[in-house]
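Re: weekly structure request thread

Next one in the queue (136 aa):
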Amino acid sequence: MFATVVRRFAVVLFLSLTVASIRASDDPLFHSTDPLAPRDEWGVLHQTSTLYPTDYEPHSGVRLFYYFRSRHELLRDPAYVGALQVCLRNRGYYCGPIDGINSDEVTDAIARLQKNHAQRVTGRLTIPVRRALHLP
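Done, posted below.
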């Protein structure tokens, strides 16, 4: 009898703490972490009046498509470079325009990211850089 009451109390306590922690969280349970989705300069996902030239570039709606492309192919894709520039800007590494062009500023931003993440500094788009930015 006493063990049953203790178990029920433990379950109710666990559920109430779970609900309280979910409500206290700033992020919703299911939110988009897709870096190719349209976002503003603060990372908020919504439609804005500011349109970049990379918004009109063709890109795949499936992330799996980007995993099998080399860094050379990805850096020729203006939509991917635009998403890379947005990710680097949101993390404070890039201050240039979002134009989808792989410039020296993008290379320097990648080098700063590599230095801060204790990677070998080359300024190239590598798989560890893509993982650090949550890019496919």
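Helices lie at 2-24, 64-67, 71-76, 78-90, 104-116, 127-132. The mean pLDDT is 79.
Next request, please.
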